[in-house]
Design a protein that fits this description.
heterodimer; A: alpha+beta; 14% strand; B: mainly alpha; 10 helices
Chain lengths: 112, 237
């Protein structure tokens, strides 16, 4: 399980990256993170929403209430053009950390 | 034998909703979002073979402690709750102003039907009395739940800022013109000429404009704070 401050710090690139693949809603985002991290990143469900609202306030994502195929209305989030730029920066920064650690731990670094 | 304490999922969700509604720091949009999340989580858990009761309790636990959650929501957008509150205050002010202007033609009709009424109470007192009655009437209906402010009709009405502006202003214009026409009719019928010495159209125009000016202030606030999707123009990437 990830430490609390790491969970907080990684939530922004995770959400932005998921939304870069297409619009999504809170429940689906949490499921995706749980699945992709193999259970290592476990968000308390409700806490994702303040993260989403903060990103929306910063103009990185936008939201819209839409009816899903099931007939249930959900609030969908999608990436804005500012969000796409922010994701690029996040990616460079996280990979810089990743590569530094990789070299220290003798793992093959990736190209940024 | 039928189990007396069978678990009622809808009642449980309803209870949870009320706990949610008791959090002063959540906007109605936040609550709606959390509720769809809870329902999604419950149906998912049910699909995995848990029964309704187990699914509900697990989903509820996963959503987390509501008080802590509400604190986090406020940190993310401190002004959100106040935006919503000021929105409803402006809506109340608009309704109150609108109701007050509708009392004028009512008073004119009463004055026409009962000419002696004017000798007992003056017009301003009478219109204030009518106004207070209307406000209490509406408050009573809302409190009893006969008037639902979160109806789908109202929701579709405030979905889009442009549509909202057009609809509100045209409803106001139609209502004002109607009021002015009634007053004009009463004045003509009672041969009260000083009410419209500049002709009927000037009278209606004057009346509509004068009573709209004040109401445009809350209308502007409403349009500004409208909790819609297009608060910022979506820039789809």
């Amino acid at each position: 399980m990830l430490a609390k401050d790491l969970v907080a710090a990684s939530s922004k690139p995770l959400v932005l990256s998921i939304l870069a693949d297409g619009e999504s809603y809170g429940y689906e985002i949490i499921q995706k993170v749980r699945e992709l991290s193999g259970g290592h990143i476990e968000w308390s469900d409700g806490m994702l929403y303040p993260v989403l609202h903060r990103l929306e306030r910063d103009g990185l994502i936008d939201s819209e209430w839409k009816e899903a195929n099931t007939g249930r209305e959900r609030k969908y989030y999608f990436l804005s053009s500012d969000g796409r730029k922010a994701l690029k920066t996040e990616r460079q920064q996280w990979l810089a950390v990743h590569n530094t650690l990789s070299r220290l731990w003798k793992i093959k670094p990736v190209s940024i | 034998m039928e189990n007396q304490t069978r678990f009622d999922l809808n009642a449980a969700v309803e209870n949870w909703r009320q706990e949610l509604a008791a959090q002063p720091n959540l906007t109605s949009d936040d609550r709606r979002e959390l509720e769809t999340h809870l329902r999604d989580a419950i149906s998912e858990l049910c699909r995995h073979g848990l029964n309704n009761e187990e699914s509900f309790w697990l989903a509820r636990r996963r959503v987390g402690q509501l008080e802590q959650l509400a604190e986090e929501f406020v940190k993310a957008d401190p002004a959100a709750v106040w935006r919503e509150r000021v929105f409803w205050m402006a809506a109340g002010a608009l309704a109150a102003l609108f109701l007050f202007t509708t009392t004028t033609p009512l008073i004119a009709i009463i004055g026409y039907c009962f000419p002696t009424a004017g000798k007992i109470v003056d017009e301003l007192t009478l219109s204030l009395m009518l106004w207070v009655l209307q406000i209490f009437g509406i408050t009573f209906l809302i409190a009893r739940g006969n008037m639902n402010l979160q109806s789908p009709l109202l929701a579709s009405f405030i979905k889009d800022r442009f549509r909202f502006a057009i609809m509100t202003i045209s409803v106001l214009l139609i209502a004002k013109t109607f009021c002015a026409t009634i007053m004009l009719w009463v004045y003509v019928a009672s041969r009260n000429v000083h009410g419209f010495n500049r002709g009927p159209f000037a009278f209606i125009g004057n009346y509509v404009f004068a009573s709209l000016v004040l109401e445009l202030v809350p209308v502007a606030i409403l349009i500004w704070l409208l909790p819609t999707q297009n608060r910022k123009t979506p820039k789809r990437a």
